[in-house]
Specification:
By secondary structure, the protein is α/β, with parallel strands linked by helices. Helix content is about 45%, strand content about 15%. The strands form six sheets. It has a six-stranded antiparallel beta sheet, sandwiched between helices. A five-stranded antiparallel beta sheet has the order 5-6-10-8-9. A hairpin with a 5-residue loop joins strand 8 and strand 9. The N and C termini lie far apart (about 70 Å).
Length: about 950
Amino acid sequence: MLPDNYRLLTEVLSKKIPTKRIITNPLQLLAYGTDASFYRLIPKIVIQVHNEDEAVEVIYQTGKLGIPVTYRAAGTSLSGQAITDSVLMVATHEWRKYTILDDGLKIRLQPGIVGARANIYLKPFGRKIGPDPASINAAMIGGIAANNASGMCCGTDQNSYKTIADIRIVLYDGTILDTADEESKLQFKNLHPEIIAEIENMRDEIKANPSLSERIKQKYKIKNTTGYSINALVDFEDPIEIIKHLMIGSEGTLAFTSNITYHTVIDERYKACTLMIFETIEKACDAVPLLKTSPVAAVELLDREAIRSIEDDPEAPDYFRTLPETACLLLVEIQANEMEDMAKKEALVRKAVESFPTILPYKFTSDPKEYNFNWKARKGLLSSIGGLRRTGTTCLIEDVAFPIHQLGKACVALKELFKRSNYTDAVLYGHALDGNFHIVFSQDFNDPKEVQKYADMMDELADIVVNQFDGSLKAEHGTGRNMAPFVEKEWGEAAYKIMQRIKNIFDPHHLINPGVIINKNPKIHLENLKPLPAAHELIDKCMECGFCEPNCVAEGLTLSPRQRIVIAREIARLEANREDTSRLRTMMHEANYYSNETCATDGLCGLACPVKIDIGKFIKDLRHNQSSDTSKKVAAYIGNRMTGTTAILRRGLNFVHFFHSILGSTIMGGIASALRTISFKAIPKWNKDMPKGAHKIKETIVNDGQPDKVVYFPSCINRSMGKSKGYEKGDVELTQKTKELLQRAGFTIIYPEGINELCCGMAFSSKGFKEEGTRKAKELEDALLDASENGKYPVLFDMSPCFYTFYEAHSNKDLRIYDPVEFMLNFVMPKLTVKNPRDIVTVFPVCSLKKIGMENKLLELAKMCAKEVSFVETNCCGFAGDRGFTYPELNKHGQRHLAEQIPANCKDGYSTSRTCEIGMSKYSDINFKSIFYLIDEVTK
């Protein structure tokens, strides 16, 4: 039950914000309230705002009612700065507008844009944003700026503080300040003269205090995000410029950012990196100051424990496993816009460290496989290390910085601290060029003695960083709750009082993200610790970093992979404790829809996850465990009668198509919607692109006698589904089109024996019937082995999802199986000549293509067939087998940005999955079909 003032808030806000975006559902509150830190607070209300007017309304009304509010974008921050037990205002979806300015020299970004996406926008201009955090593929601009996140290459010269051009903010009372707008600045000065006056007072007081002024300058010569960016009071005279820069690193405690304009930096065309392996960490650190004098772009340090966390990666060099226990690695990068400059820079780097011997010779590489592994491994270190921890423990990261000339001594001091505190699994890595180290270790928060151990270690760490080395307790991850008790210790009383005054002028009622940065509670870093109970072996290694979320089709509709894991853990905790059976029942009931039914199980989350957690596999296992004996028997019955099942599907589709052809799309749609409504959604959702039935395949061999032979496995979907209404009048169904295309390419086509009974197993395994899925996959494997004469002939799958399912399931590696894209490129296109290329086409890479790394191959194939190719940027389309019919909201959500990516002069789209194409056609208003149709057309 909401307190009265919160209930009143929902009533007031519902007049301007749809109630579905004012969330009070306990399951969603828990899911949305989670961020990447090791703290947990559950909000009372989550509000998804879609524009600035809505944000202003939330800020104004919460202030009026005296209710604290916290602003959130991606929730990838690590220090507890994006959680609350009050109101959480989320600005992600619909906050993705951007404007390229001055030919790419500047870019204006809304807070919901992922950092990597901003760089994609800037790539045609040879530019990028300065900040490059390891989380750039998931972190959003709002958080990148609010935390002054930096990263591997940006250092202190290209972070948000140094590259901000302008900012548009909303203050506690709803006042808007746009520093790019002269009128806005004038209005702000008239509305809030007290803020301007206090800014000027603090500026002048600091300048009148040489020791404080000099201390501030010195502190920011290395990375520092402890407290507020009070260097703004030293670096600038103009109060507006000071305000602009104070917002950077303020962690959402001073104002809400509507947009930010960055000065961009050069994105060098050529890049190369090398791994320098030193005998000890001290020797590696001693080399860093010399590397800093050379033209390096980045220098990343990995101690032996960090190397160990990635040495079992299939792409890792073999020598990783044989390095001595004292070894330390420096990952060094050089960049240039001209190749000749790369050679010069490499020579200068080698010259700088020639007096420091390495264990192994090193070489700079631009080879995509080696280069990408080096940086993928480095950027995923936190989660990779976290994946090695004992189940039930928490992966903690501390983020400190030291003067670069003291790195070696600082590393020794930290290593001694780990040993003394009995953190035997502690790992040290980080941005050595900036003196910035990350300390990662596992912590058990279930035992009060272990919590006290952590408290003692934190006190010692603060002493080492502050008293021994005068370093930064937070270098780039933000103060949050984690380091709030130590801000005054690092900065001293005078600087801390300045920070308190900054908080007071921008948040006089202390309602904006309270408890973050400025907090009187000396134990706040030990409170509200997040539980991580064992839930399932497939997900227990998750540290809730959020890297998976941009890859999830359901994110923003129901739950993301991270949020599904949060709910699974809470259910496991409630089941173990039995402390709140009512909450457990409610959670399990609601999780069926939010977590289970609307998961596409496409596995794309696993591509982004540093520890390769595929939440789809977990959901399939969940479905399997929930399957009744009766449903398993039904699945087996259907699996044993695929000929009859596909026949029924064909007849059913023809029946529906008959009425569609008579009634038309509008009337048919109305009737279908009414039937779905009165059946309580038991009847699948119809749409105008639903196909008619296909024809049964009766052949066994076609075009016999050719020197080239192929085994063709038409999926059960394509054996059931024929043409849609949007197909050309002369088109034939895909199984027939494939046959024609292969014949024209000179192939003898062999169909596996019993083709109409065969299935890859996906229809069963995706619903949790793993036994039947496995049986059907094995049945298909035996049939394909027989048809291909034990792998003598290649096997063509006509749908990418079926290919991928079988690819994962089959065990006999003699089989030469091919996805439709790869087979066309390798076997068909060399035999055909493109005579009539299309002017423009659109192609859509389905999930399976992404998982096997075939996206560029699809683009290559399409470019053979068209002068211009529009490549759709998307996650899973959301059709997810039959979920486009049974849970159409998932498909609608997944395709919400599809139409805007289709060029106005493009009339046809192509892909490699029949069901996905139905959904694409519905939400794009162009016809999508198999790329086989395009190949056949342009080669005739």
